[in-house]
Design a protein that fits this description.
about 70% helix, MetI-like fold, 15 helices, mainly alpha, about 0% strand
């Protein structure tokens, strides 16, 4: 079918808007990358825009040779993998029973789960609860409190609703139990939504620092984003600078930019591998149910 002239103009407008959005997202990253590879003199003179001036790798050498950066990066990667696996397990075992129409108390469970999206105890009660559970300053405090997102669970439940009941009924006739049906039928058919939600959980954990900021005092368990937060927000403090291991009371803009890139690039690399699952995972889960 040949598109009308108005349709072609609409397509070009959509392409133009997409290009503008891409530039809006890409230009700040390019600027930070250029600043991380530029000399301090060029930064002081504001000569750096989108291309490095006075090419200099000293900032990256400093970051990579500092054990606190490398360990914080490794710990954040480990924490992200663990949290993603735990969260996906919790999401699956929470969403799966709710697709059964004969589940007793189904409406009550749905109501209670949805209420948690609108009401929260708050920071102080959460702190007191975690203190009473002896989770403060423990790695578990970064894993257990956020191991389930109700929003993501609803997406997965809606996706599972879209799988024909005849598949489950056929398996039940053959003698398969609920766990066998979940592992053999629902999980293999839910690749797109599982990949999408896994990326949501991984990005959330990688970028998260507020829980570590409030509930963690042990520096060996600081994620990379909290380390970056301390550096960027306390760069003028002599005490913080000495605690972070720097001899001077401040950091150069080059080192700060390199630290930002060091903490940002790894999670950006993951996106292209799972991007193709986004549309099918999120839109199908949002329409069904």
């Amino acid at each position: 079918m040949v598109k009308s002239k108005a349709g072609k103009i609409g397509d070009w407008i959509a392409v133009f808007l997409c290009c503008v959005l891409i530039l809006v997202c890409l230009l700040p990253i390019l600027n930070i990358f250029a600043r991380s590879l530029s000399s301090a003199t060029a930064l002081v003179r504001n000569e750096v825009v989108l291309w490095p001036v006075g090419l200099n790798f000293k900032a990256y050498i400093t970051v990579l040779s500092d054990s606190k950066y490398t360990w914080s990066m490794a710990w954040t990667a480990i924490l992200t993998v663990i949290c993603t696996c735990v969260s996906m397990f919790m999401t699956a075992i929470c969403a799966y029973p709710l697709i059964y129409d004969n589940l007793k108390g189904k409406k009550v469970f749905n109501t209670l789960i949805i209420l948690t999206m609108y009401f929260s105890a708050g920071t102080i009660p959460n702190y007191i609860l975690l203190k009473d559970l002896h989770l403060l300053n423990s790695p578990l405090v970064l894993i257990l409190p956020g191991c389930l997102s109700v929003f993501n669970m609803i997406i997965m439940r809606s996706f599972l609703y879209g799988i024909p009941d005849s598949l489950r009924e056929s398996a039940e006739i053959d003698g398969a139990g609920p766990i066998r049906i979940l592992v053999s039928i629902y999980i293999p058919l839910s690749t797109s939504v599982l990949a999408t939600l896994a990326l949501f959980y991984a990005v959330g954990r990688w970028n998260g620092f507020s829980d570590a900021l409030m509930f963690m005092n042990k520096r060996e368990y600081f994620p990379i984003q909290l380390l970056l937060y301390n550096i960027l927000n306390n760069v003028s403090s002599i005490d913080v600078a000495s605690q972070e291991g720097f001899s001077s009371p401040g950091l150069s803009d080059t080192l700060k930019a390199a630290t930002v890139m060091f903490a940002t690039v790894p999670i950006l690399i993951v996106y292209p591998w799972l991007q193709r699952y986004f549309i099918s995972g999120v839109t199908i889960g949002a329409v069904k149910g």
